[in-house]
Amino acid sequence: MKTKIVALLLALVMIIPMFAAAEDDYAPLAPLEETLTLRVVMPYGLSDLADVGEGVTPENGIWNDLILEALNIKFDWMWTVDSEQWTQKFQLSITSGDIPDLLRLTEVQFHDFIEMDGLREVTDAYHKWSLKEMLAMDDAVGNLPTKQATVDGKMMAVPRFEDNYSSVYMLMYRKDWADNLGIEAPKTIYDVMDMCVRFQNEDPDGDGENNTSGLAMERDPFAGSFGPLSFYQCFGGYPTRWVLDGDEVVPGILMDGTYEGLKALRELYAKGGIAKDFAALSSDNLNEDVIASKVGVFFGMWWNPNYPGPQNMNYDEKAEWIVQPLPGLTEDQIGKSSINENMVQYYNAVYAGAPEGAEEALIKILNYDYCWLAPIDPTTPNIPDINTQKPLTDDPEILAQRDAETKELTLKGRFWSWLPVQTWPADINVQNARNAYNAWATGDLSYLHSATEKDWYDRTVAYHEKDYSRFTRGSVEGMWWSRTNFPDGGIATAVKVRDEGNVVYNVYYGPATESETQYKSTLNDMASEYFIKFIMGDVDVESWDGFKSDWLALGGQDWWDEVKVGYAELHG
Ligand SMILES: [Ca+2]
Predict the structure, then answer these.
(1) How do residues 398-414 score in pLDDT, each as one tens digit?
(2) From CA 40, how far away is CA 223, in angstroms rounded?
(3) Phi, psi of 539 (to 5 degrees)
């Protein structure tokens, strides 16, 4: 017995310091031990100056004091420049060898720096110092951004990135019309086509007149929202994208799926499921048609239930919309939307010649920036005194005080984008939506961390209580269907698509190739004209092979060959 207790005590003694050490180690916002001076540069918009006090610039603004005070990092400004002259000025700086310690690099510059051994590895610093919120947002997108910044197993930069999954296409349709005609939720793209034809030819709004149409489709055959792009995608066709077919990169416009989608659109047009005059319609016209209850089906993105959905619901008290992922060809597959594989806007990197400790400094500046943009775990040590991190309140006095403080700090130069390296809370919409949903679903308001989340929550409550005293019916329906409805709203649908990997990547994101610059607009005009004629039945169905040959002969083959080389370089 005694031995057991001793063993237990020993185990405890050994475990406690390990835990304690782990807790102590998490210090993403702790100041550097010794002041570190870093040479920096930055572009900024001249219009930014309208928001700050006279004579205030990034070089003398309050960020300099805040970063020094919080992180013990001093900016030594080499120069700043009007955003429009940034590319030229920065390139000149690199060429002349007068290179700053902290860099923000384009894809091409990043690879140039790697080639000349110009960057410091940041793998260890990234994992040791990053806010867990920063790591989580990279995890949320399958670590694609950090993979892209990794060369030979070493992370060479911290990318500022966006969540491209938020741009997947989805389907929206008038549920009240479908109910009126006894149409069940469509399971395949063919069900959707049938629904479109019935919306056009029958009387879904029940007013006894033939005044509704099916699929909202605009005149550009390669347009995204309100365009046919998502329709081809339901058939596995990806015009305007470069996608992988096995190991080979191919132009999506020439894929069999594009041809199948085109034939289906032709059939839909012949049966009356698309407006006869679609080739004259702009996306603005279609927005108006949705709002005026003239059209019942459209493809769009997660935010579309909030525009033009609410405007329609305010106009038509019977209107109800449903969101679902792109349908596929059979019940057991959904359509795969295409997103850009590249999510990186630019690379935050450390120059090889920077002083010791610059890697840690880079990560901590990014952490600090993140705190200013989004709420973090309130138990994180050294949280800066920033509004985003303060407890939520309804107290008008406190809110007014915070507003005044924000205004004063902005005047002193705390302009949101005035840091030489920057991050972005890429998954903030998903977080806000989830927190607002959880607060409503559980009644536990501690889920709410920001004024945005509180607003989304308030509208969600109003939606469920059908209380339109503070917000219109349209705006609370729009909030629920675009954002806070889990698992069926717009954001939840995008998350579902992301988690199930139901996307096809657009895999070429290098600079425009020589032939692209030379031939793209001719090819696009030729293809647009052909696609419109095809849909309207003005060319033979068998003409597809001829179109493909023409596309290749008119410069498409050269463009394709160059993209193959560029793809290999990017994915080396
Ligand atoms: Ca009618």
Answers:
(1) 999 999 999 999 999 99
(2) 41
(3) -125, 160
How many angstroms separate the alpha carbon of residue 212 from the centre of ligand 1?
A: 6
Bond from prior residue into 381 cis (ω within 30 degrees of 0): no
How would you classify the pairing of strands 170-174 and 295-300? Answer: antiparallel
Q: Name the residue with tokens 């063993």.
A: 7
Q: Which residues pair with 75 in a beta bridge?
A: 38
Tell me the CA–centroid distance for residue 180 and ligand 1, in Å. Answer: 11
| Each residue's pLDDT tens digit, 533-570 | 999 999 999 999 999 999 999 999 999 999 999 999 88
Q: Distance between CA 274 and CA 476 in Å, rounded? A: 30
d(CA 475, CA 511): 41
Distance (Å, whole) CA 552 – CA 550? 5
Distance (Å) from CA 271 to ligand 1 centroid: 18
Q: What domains can be seen in the chain, in order of their start residue?
A: 36-163+343-411 (3.40.190.10), 170-340+504-509 (3.40.190.10)
Burial of 284 (0-12, 13-18, 19+ CB in 10 A): exposed
Gap from CA of 177 to ligand 1 centroid (Å): 10
**23 confidence band (pLDDT: 50, 70, 90):** low
d(CA 286, CA 472): 23
Helix, strand, or coil (residue 168): coil
Q: How do 321-325 and 170-174 pair as beta strands?
A: antiparallel
Cα 182 to middle of ligand 1, angstroms: 15
Ligand 1 centroid – CA 199 distance (Å): 9
Tell me the torsion sign for CA atoms 88, 90, 94, 98.
positive
- Return d(Cα 505, Cα 387) in angstroms, integer: 38
DSSP bridge partners of 102:
350
| Residue 14, both tokens | 């050994």
- The C-alpha atoms of residue 382 and residue 29 are separated, in whole angstroms, by 6
Q: 333 near 238, Cβ under 8 Å?
A: no
Q: How far apart are CA 357 and CA 367, in angstroms?
A: 16
Distance CA 528, CA 522 (A): 10
Q: What is the pLDDT of residues 139-166, one digit of tens each?
A: 999 999 999 999 999 999 999 999 999 9
Would you state the structure tokens that stand for residue 319, as one six-digit string? Answer: 């209107």
How close is the Cα of 294 to the center of ligand 1, in Å? 9
- Which has the closest alpha carbon to 251: 569, 539, 564? 564
**Neighbouring C-beta atoms of residue 498, cutoff 10 Å:** 20
Helices then strands (H, E): number in the chain?
A: 22, 15
Q: Identify the CA nearest to 249 among candidates 25, 570, 529, 491.
A: 570
If you measure from the C-alpha of residue 176 to the centroid of ligand 1, how many angstroms do you get, rounded to a whole number?
Answer: 13
Which residue's entry shows tokens 């775990």? 377
- With beta carbons less than 8 A apart as the criterion, state whether 526 and 239 touch: no
Ligand 1 center from residue 202 Cα (angstroms): 7
149 within 8 A of 113, measured Cβ to Cβ: no
Q: Where are the alpha helices (DSSP H) in 386-513?
A: 396-411, 428-442, 451-465, 473-479, 490-499
What residues sit around ligand 1, an ion, with C-beta below 5 angstroms?
Answer: 203, 205, 207, 209, 211
**Residue percentage of the chain with pLDDT more than 70:** 96
